[in-house]
Specification:
198 residues; mainly alpha; 6 helices
């Protein structure tokens, strides 16, 4: 749709730093075109003063002052020919995005237990008999019960935990439900939200 007289942002040039808005960008573009170095520097100082007023961050530190001049250099595409009061050569690093963090996606049979429980299953398969193994079995079984209560959608029976523990440890760990006592698990009830008065 092209309506004469309407100027949409989608048709305009993309802003380098949209947080300052198009008017500041227009001021920067105008400052680049000024004929003398003194006029360009004076315009740059005025633009930085406006940028300071627009920013809610605390001023007064040298790093804050440097930040505004770095932003000005970026907005001008480093084409503003002035005697910069700060070294703005490293300003380009502001716009570089960090590498995305790798997210370890592992294929687990049942997601409600989570990856850490399956790591415990692998550890239980190879641990030597003794009190450490007994404690880890109890901790794992109780965590499985908590996971089932929270994510199992109603199926949190002790028999289910014992069956899953035996199944995922290849039958090595067998819980005697007559002697084993699970910790009491309660779901935290959501606090009642106060109704907004109209």
């Amino acid at each position: 749709m092209n309506i004469e007289g309407l100027d949409y942002n989608t048709h305009r040039e993309k802003l380098m730093m949209p947080e300052y808005g198009r008017e500041i960008q227009n001021m920067v573009d105008m400052a680049i075109e000024l004929p003398t170095r003194e006029e360009r520097l004076q315009a740059a100082k005025s633009i930085v003063a406006v940028m300071k007023r627009m920013s809610p961050q605390p001023h007064g530190t040298e790093n804050a002052e440097q930040k505004y001049w770095d932003h000005l250099a970026l907005m001008s595409g480093f084409r503003l020919d002035i005697d910069w009061p700060y070294d703005v050569r490293n300003a380009v690093h502001i716009t570089t995005k960090p590498e995305p963090l790798p997210y370890p996606m592992t294929d687990i049979p049942v997601r409600h237990y989570g990856n850490l429980i399956f790591e415990l299953f692998e550890k239980l398969k190879v641990m030597d008999e003794g009190p450490d193994l007994d404690q880890l079995i109890a901790d794992t079984a109780n965590q499985m019960k908590r996971c089932l209560v929270q994510w199992g959608h109603g199926s949190a029976a002790d028999e289910k935990v014992a069956s899953d523990l035996a199944r995922y440890t290849d039958g090595r760990i067998q819980i005697d439900l007559d002697n084993f006592r699970f910790e009491k698990v309660e779901l935290n009830a959501e606090p009642e939200r106060k109704r907004k008065k109209k």
